[in-house]
Amino acid sequence: MASTSVSRIVPASPDKVWSLIGGFGALPDWLPYIPESTPLEGGRVRRLKNPEGEVIIERLVDFNETERHYSYAILQAPFPVNGYVSTIRVHTVPGQENTAEVQWSGRFNPEGATEDEVVDLFTGIYRDGLHALHETLAA
């Protein structure tokens, strides 16, 4: 099983960051790669579309409001992986109440691609996503 993790310091309090990204259907609010999210099964599943119209279906597998993190599994996607589970976490930065650290990590099995290729793919998605989040919060 392969994995990757990206962290980024963002210019907002952990509570403000979580209020933006903590909803399972909130990706279109901060992630340009996902302009559309449709909740299914009472909000436990989300049907996403990327700008090319490709569909990604994900299931919420863990959610912790107090600790500000959630995990999800990909059920269907145009990515060369299986067994994908990812977690988004918001951490406090000691002594900096208007700053937070956001960590986006994932583990997965390559399928039809090398481990390096899929690690690079998701590292790029996480890095670009956290950059977009930083830009949204800095605006």
TrEMBL record:
InterPro entries (alphabetical): Polyketide_cyclase/dehydratase (IPR019587), START-like_dom_sf (IPR023393)
Record Pfam families: Polyketide_cyc2
CDD domains: PYR_PYL_RCAR_like
Coiled-coil region(s): none
Highest taxon above the source species: Bacteria
Protein name: SRPBCC family protein
Organism expressing this protein natively: Streptomyces asiaticus subsp. ignotus
Lineage, broadest ranks: Bacteria, Bacillati, Actinomycetota, Actinomycetes, Kitasatosporales
